[in-house]
Specification:
Layout (H helix, E strand, L loop, with lengths): L8 H4 L19 H13 L3 E6 L2 E3 L5 H8 L4 E6 L4
Amino acid sequence: MAIYQKLNWSQCQKDFEFDGTWRDIYILNTNSDDWNQLLESFLASKYQTIFWIDNKKNKRIQTIQEALRIRNHANTYMLINASGI
């Protein structure tokens, strides 16, 4: 498979079947612009996006730089509810 070939869900669904553990997904060779674009896509999507700072629901984080600044002094977590996944 070419390095930048897009996958569809049917090609990788089996890799994400729950076996009692959660998957870590690494996205290599990226920069803050790439992460901001991903964050913007989630915020603009139909999926519910919830931000947690120190175990409390919080306002939306608008940029990855903001998330990284907060992470220096607090625990952060972002949940994207993609139709129950």
